[in-house]
Amino acid sequence: MRKTYQMGVIGAGARGELFARALACGQGNTAFFGLCDLDADRMEKFCRFCGVEPDRRFTDPAKFLASKELDAVFITVPDFAHCETALAALAAGKHVYLEKPLAPTLSQCQQLLAAARKSDRTFYIGFNMRASPVYQKLKQIADSGVLGRLIHVSAYEQMSVAHGASFMRRWHRREARSGGFLNHKCSHDLDILQWIIGHQHRIARVASFGGTNIFRPENGPAGHGTHCSNCPPAIYRDCPYPFVGGFMFPTSEKEAIVKTQQTDIYGNDLCVYTDDKDVVDNQTLIFEWDHGVRGDFTLQPFQRDGVRSTRIWGEFGLAEHIEDLRDGRGSVIRHIDSRRGSSAEYRFSSRHGGHGGTDSEMLQRFLAAIESGSAGDSGVAEGLAASLLALKADESRHAGKVVEISPAEYGGA
Question: Which end of the chain is more exposed for a tag (fewer CB within 10 A), N or C?
């Protein structure tokens, strides 16, 4: 008989809502143990909204993790609390699912890698893009050899206006809390590029350019409010970045569940033109692997719709895809053979659910990793490699120079 794993969630936010609801509904051989959040008021509102019973609510992480019945935890706290929370969970002997990114600093990433290697528990990183049939097909094409020797990979993430603006209202707007916009938002994009090339190879150097060109105080209209809710109606009506909700808990409502004094962290309808942010609102990087393959990535959040694109160039051809994130739209991959002039096309219909339907699969992938006694296909070393590239890109951006990445920074063997 298969073991039933008692799983809990730490962090009452949008991602916590996803996993708490899935566990409470029953997912395979799992059972919902409970939910933990430091804020009692936020916890009470969250649990009432999601239907979590009183005996499954915790506000003390130490007491929550000390529960012998608890087997595994989904950690969905803000990035700046990732390291402390994950280390405590490992020390308590729990299997860990940690939302990306791994951590905001390289030293914290390396701490987590060392702790995971010493532990006999599964430590899984929430890189949901790996569960996408689109990226799995791209990986299959790259690994098959039909492209010949790989030369270059290129990708961009084009975010919708409302999505991009939401990061300027919340804790993400300060680099120290997330390791930067690139690390928080695009670590799974950077992971996919490294996964396609193969983690037996490592990126050796990176250069990056970026800045805050739009969401600057001087670009805000004269007389605007500190929040959308106190902005003069005439100014608010013409603002291209009104608060529309949908990117924080609860995801089905316009108004987020927050306490007024916590808006510095949770944000809600904070004006995007505040002067207390230091994250970029656009960024480009170029990088080179240790075996000579090169790549580039661009992030920009000022389009009507969210779209990702990836291209893989090889000596014998090209594989390219555009993933349209709009509801009801599909994705397409084209493989062009440069020797024969032939092409093949693979179409993928849009799937329901968050992140193109991959969110619903991540719990099962975590469970499979636990049962196999491994980190599955998305462990701490992969999490470190993604954050390392993002953090080194920002180092390059700040210093205005190419930054080398040493093998030792990946954590060794």
Answer: N
